[in-house]
Amino acid sequence: MGIKVAKFGGSSVADGIQLTKTKQIITQDPDRRYIVVSAPGKRYESDNKITDILYLCKTHIEHNLPYDQLFQVVADRFMAVQINLGIKVDLFRYFDEIRENLKQNPSADYIASRGEYLNAVLVAAFLGYDFVDTKDLIKFDAKGKLMMPETDEAIRAELAKHERAVLPGFYGSLPDGSVKTFSRGGSDITGALVARAMAADVYENWTDVSGFLMADPRIVKRPKRIHVITYRELRELSYMGAGVLHEDAIFPVRMAGIPINIRNTNEPDNPGTMIVRADESHVRGAITGIAGKKGFTAIAVEKNMMNSELGFGRRMLEALEECNVSFEHMPSGIDTMTVLVSDHNIEGRIDQVVEKIRRTCKPDHIEVISGLSLIATVGRGMVRYPGTAARIFGALADSGINIRMIDQGSSEINIITGVESADFEKAINAIYNAFMK
Fold it and tell me: Which residues contact 194 (CB under 8 A, 6 or more apart)?
C-alpha cells in the first residue's frame, strides 16, 4: 500500500453536499490515508467563510462587543452538517471548550484556527478515521519561523500510530504551546508538510478548479489546462498572481521530490495538473503559462558612466533598504538602472525613496513611472525554442501595446514585460494568442 496525502480546501468541505463528494473521493483510493482539511468555505457567492466569521469574533472581543451570536453562526454551520449527514460526534463538547477560551480573550491565531479544528473533528468522524491535531506537530520557534526538522520528526512519530487520520490545516504551535497560524491559505502548507514527513507518493490538493490554466480565465476566454508543470515554473507563475496553491506549500514537497496533483472535487475524474521536478521528457512547447500583476511603480535612474562607478548598484539598493522598501525587478543598461517596486510597498514613501537615491547615488536624472503592470511568460521549453521573445514582443507590437520594461531571468524560463496597466488584459490575450493559435 502506498501513501497519498490529500488536502481538501474550503470549497470542498463547505457543506454536507461537498463533504459527501469528498468522502467518495477518499474512499475510492485506499492509498489516501492522511487527509488535511481547511475550514468550511463559502457555500454560495454571498455566503461567509467560517474563518472570516471567527476573525470577526476576535474583533468584537477586542472592542468589548457581544460575540456570542457570531460564534453561534459558526456552531450552527457545523451542527447543520452533522445533522444532514448523520455524523456521530459530540460537537457540543468542543463548542463549550472554545466558548470558555473565548472568555479569556485568546489570540487571533487561536480563534481563526478553530474552523479547521472543528472541521477536522467532524470529517474524521464522517470518514471513520482518527482525528490528529496538528497543534503540537507543526512547530514554530519563538519568532514564528517554521522549524522544519522538528516538524518532520513530530508528524512522522505521531502518524506512525495511525493507519488513517484527518488533520486540521493552517496552524501549529509556538514553544509556549500557544497556537500559531500560517498566512491565509496555509492549509496547503500543512498538507505539504504531512506529505513530506510521511514520504508520500503524491500530495493531492483538492480544490474547485481542475488544475492550473495557462492564463487567468477572467482575462482569457477558455484558456487551456496545464497538464504538467515543474516546481520552478509554478514558483514563477504563483509569484505573478496565478492562484490555486499557496506558494509556500511548494518547498516542503519540492525538497523531498514529491509530486503535487491539483484536482477538482467537483470533477474527480479530471486528472488536473501534476507539479513535478524538472524533467525534459515533460517539455511540450515553448511556454507553460502566462500570469501578471497590476500595481507597480518604476524608479528609473540615469547617470553618465554608471557602469564604471564602483558600488553604484549597492548604494541604489541600500537607499531602498533604508526606506524599508523591497524591489521586484532591477533591469539595467550602461548608464541606466531601474527598480520596480509594488505600489503597496512604496505607498506614501515615493518622495522619501527618490530623495534618498538622489543623495546617495547622485544621478543625473530620476524618473518615477507609475501605473505599470508586469506580465510573466513562463516555460521550461523557452531556451530550446528559437524566437520565443520575438513572438512575445511581436504580439504586443501588433496589438499596439508599448513595452515599458523587459527582464529575463537567469534561469531562462521566464520573460517579464512591463506595460501600462490600461493595456494589461489586452497584453495577456495578445501573448496567449501568439502561442495558442
Answer: 5, 34, 36, 155, 159, 167, 200
